[in-house]
Write a structure and sequence with these properties.
By secondary structure, the protein is an alpha+beta fold. It folds into 4 domains: about 180 residues, no CATH class; about 100 residues, no CATH class; about 140 residues, Hypothetical protein af1432, CATH 1.10.3210.10; about 70 residues, Alpha-Beta Plaits (2-Layer Sandwich). Helices cover about 45% and strands about 15% of the residues. The strands form 5 sheets. A 4-stranded antiparallel sheet has the order 1-2-3-4, with helices on one face. The chain has a 4-stranded antiparallel sheet with strand order 13-14-16-15. A hairpin with a 3-residue loop joins strand 13 and strand 14. Helix 11 packs across helix 13 and helix 12 crosses helix 17. The longest helix is centred in the middle third of the chain and has 24 residues. It starts with a helix and ends with a strand.
Length: about 550
């Protein structure tokens, strides 16, 4: 199970598939429902004995093997109430060592506050739910509500901060929401749209588990944002970018100031759709096999080279980075069908081998290419001028590199420039290790490079060859990130010393604090926590 699988899995819950705990009376029931996709580790009798103040007939399990139990009031006349109990199996994740008694009081108090219909309570409650369950509850809430500007505002806020599940909204739900748009809200939308032409080019990025574009309202005016959404969940399968056109008058909403540049438009209004496939690693088996002997030959040299020059292997530009650049470069050559001579292949691979060996930090440093070139000259007495050029100029501006190449004595300048673009693109592809938002496809130099983003995303998580931690361990962590605050950037990758690092970014300071408390209280899950500006970094045991 991959991290992407977990992210998708925890967002499969819905009101329609909730299972009452009263159906679980024996261990045989637990086993039977687990096979059907429910994660339950406690019978109804055991629950009633342990938590007597919570009516057992209001306890439900979501159709999701990674989901906790929920306290539910599904027949509420204001909004269906679905509160996570943070009970996994038969264990409860306690915040600040909260007692069972206080826990029960807190749950019942929260349900009572929500049932009053108080708008701030309902808003806060909806934001606390994982995405697909949030949308399921929102759909019922829309049915119970009158169309007005507050409902429209709530819908927009939830839509912009939810990544899964909106395909479940019915057309009637959406029409009701849009009907409540106030005159001021309409004028604000017109103002935001004023910078766009009458016909707008829009993009949509989809992974293998995304809502298909034929049913989606969500598009973007940014190709970079579309690439992010196509590749944000690591997968072995292909993803895709859809390019289309819409009339400005058909756009429901536009958010030009957001990084995502999101456009809301009815699916029927999207015209001239063109699909561009991005390659998952499963689609590239033959291509990988074709260059794998050369890759293995150079792979065996990377670790020894970095060891020889005392480079640490826990930096951003370490031996593993070099290994991934090598892989991505050779894959780029193969997929784009570039016919390199044996000499050119070795020039490229040698340049990759040494390109960062002179780095002494992970900061922006346009001098490290020259330092790496010095090491290359010391290590290889009969060094190649083309390889030396690639090493020294890979970190410099293309315009300077091209000007100096033209002025040099290097022969076959056109072919060396081709090798330069391959190295630069492969180096840029591995920026996925900082998260997909760190990659801007407009800077790629080769036609095929953007198509390799899903593969680069996957290899950035697996180059160490170390297995991902257990699914249940990760499920708990993903749950915390998904349900507490809006997650705008998530990145999981391997570090030296057999640890994993999870970078979390949220727009809510309160959410950060709650997450810190939740993780810190679960001492068995982590050994180190520290706060950086609007982000967490922690290492599990």
């Amino acid at each position: 199970m991959t991290v992407g699988d977990i992210l998708v899995s925890i967002n499969q819950a819905s009101l329609d598939t909730m299972l009452p705990l009263t159906a679980v009376q024996t261990s045989a029931d637990i086993e039977r429902y687990y096979k059907e996709g429910y994660s339950i580790g406690i019978t109804a009798t055991e629950f009633a004995k342990k938590y007597p103040r919570l009516p057992v007939d209001k306890i439900y399990a979501a159709h999701n093997v990674l989901a906790p139990l929920y306290y539910c009031e599904l027949d509420s006349t204001t909004v269906p109430i679905v509160l996570s109990l943070n009970i996994y199996g038969d264990k409860r994740l306690a915040v600040n060592s909260e007692s069972d008694e206080k826990f029960q009081q807190r749950v019942l108090g929260a349900a009572e506050n929500i049932s009053t219909g108080n708008a701030p309570f309902i808003r806060s409650y909806l934001f606390s739910l994982e995405d697909s369950l949030r949308v399921s509850v929102l759909s019922r809430y829309i049915e119970l509500s009158n169309p007005d500007e507050d409902l429209y505002s709530l819908f927009l806020d939830l839509y912009r901060t939810s990544d899964f599940g909106f395909s479940a909204l019915k057309e009637d739900d959406l029409q009701k929401v849009f009907a409540g748009k106030s005159q001021k809200q309409k004028q604000d939308t017109i103002k935001r749209l004023s910078s766009l032409p009458d016909t707008v080019t829009v993009y949509r990025g989809e992974g293998s588990k995304s809502t298909p574009y034929e049913k989606s309202f969500s598009w973007t005016t940014s190709y970079k944002a579309a690439c992010f959404f196509a590749c944000r969940i690591p997968s072995l399968e292909n993803s895709r970018i859809i390019t289309a056109h819409v009339s400005k008058c058909d756009i429901i909403e536009y958010f030009p100031n957001d990084e995502e540049k999101e456009v809301l438009v009815p699916p029927a209004a999207v015209k001239d759709r063109k699909v561009d496939t991005l390659y998952g690693i499963n689609a590239l088996t033959d291509e990988i096999q074709a260059f794998f002997p050369l890759y293995q030959r150079y792979r065996s040299r990377i670790s020894s080279l970095y060891d020889a020059y005392g480079r640490a292997n826990d930096e951003e530009h370490d031996a593993e980075h070099t290994l991934r650049v090598l892989f991505d470069a050779l894959l780029l050559v193969q997929v784009q069908g570039i016919a390199l001579t044996k000499k050119e292949s070795h020039q490229l691979c040698d340049a990759i081998l040494y390109h960062d060996i002179g780095r002494t930090n992970d900061d922006v440093d346009d001098s490290h290419g020259a330092k790496s070139n010095d090491i290359y000259h010391d290590a290889v007495p009969e060094c190649n001028s083309a390889t030396a050029f690639l090493i020294e100029y890979h970190c410099l501006d293309d315009r300077k590199a091209l000007a100096d190449l033209k002025a040099s004595n290097i022969r076959d300048k056109e072919r060396v420039w081709l090798l330069y673009t391959i190295l630069k693109d492969a180096d840029a592809l591995d920026r996925v290790r900082f998260g997909m938002r760190a990659v801007d496809p407009k800077y790629f130099r080769n036609e095929i490079t953007h198509k390799l983003l899903p593969t680069a995303q996957r290899t950035s998580q697996s180059s160490s060859g170390t297995p991902i931690p257990s699914p249940m361990f990760l499920s708990i962590i993903v749950m915390l990130f998904s349900t507490i605050g809006h997650t705008t950037n998530v990145n999981l990758r391997f570090l030296k010393t057999d640890a994993w690092i999870w970078s979390f970014r949220t727009t809510s300071v309160m959410a950060m604090r709650m997450l810190q408390i939740s993780i810190a209280s679960t001492t068995s899950l982590c050994s180190h926590i520290c706060i950086r500006t609007q982000s967490f970094r922690w290492l599990p045991m």
